[in-house]
Amino acid sequence: PPRTNGQEGLRVLTVLQQCQEALQPGAPRTEAGAPARPDYSVHESAFIDDGVEIGAGTSIWHVSHILRNSRVGKNCRVGQNVVIGPNARIGDGVKIQNNVSVYEGVTLEDQVFCGPSVVFTNVHNPRSEIRRMDELRPTLVRHGATLGANCTIVCGVTIGRYAFVGAGAVVTKDVPDFALMVGNPARVAGWMCTCGNRIKLEAGDRDGICRACQKRYQRIGKEVRAA
Q1: Which residues, in sequence order, are CB contacts of 14 under 8 Å at separation 6+?
Q2: Which of 23, 45, 95, 165 is deepest in the core (most CB within 10 A)?
Q3: Averaged pLDDT, groups of 10, the chain, 227 residues long
């Protein structure tokens, strides 16, 4: 068949487009010189700004936006309509459900879970007509913590390791490791195991045990630690 047919023309245009993409400055290369496919997945409706770092195995879903200079770790799950950044830090294995905004000043360590519509803030006393971006109060959510649906984390606090913030709670102060927080303002209502179940630890008890996996814990002052 003639080499000037439409199919051949389409093939030539495809090759030219691939060559142009491969010559773009900063484009990752395979050994053959073609652009390398990223080892994470991003839905076509999502937005990824320049200067963003995304780890292998991470997936970013519909209409989410990762703003400049943010880092999202490996094997994360970022749901629909999520905003991260700018300059936010997300660890490995983090799950962020739909409709969450992780603002500048917020850091989520490894294995944090954010339920649907969790609310973060970063300015303590906002006014529309007064710019206060130089007064951000950092928020730190430590390894393995769970933030339930629709809870609010007021800026400037630290959520302890494997703490569990109940749905709708409003956190206004630091949360100890393993603490179960409920209410507005949130208060300690018990203690949670790393497996996500309640620790049997009554008032006055020094030793506790998980009701599900039987892992043991100790109360030391106002804190609880794995035995």
Answers
A1: none
A2: 165
A3: 64 68 52 64 95 97 97 98 97 98 97 98 95 94 98 98 98 98 97 96 90 95 92
| Token pair in block for residue 110 | 């490894």
Cβ within 8 Å of residue 23, ≥6 positions away = none
Instruction: Return the SS3 of 157.
Output: coil
The C-alpha atoms of residue 80 and residue 147 are separated, in whole angstroms, by 17
Q: What is the DSSP letter of 38?
A: P
Please give the sequence-ordered ranges of beta strands (E in DSSP) within 32-80, or none if there are none: 41-42, 47-48, 53-54, 59-60, 65-66, 71-72, 77-78
Which pTM value belongs to this model? Answer: 0.83
Distance (Å, whole) CA 163 – CA 40: 29
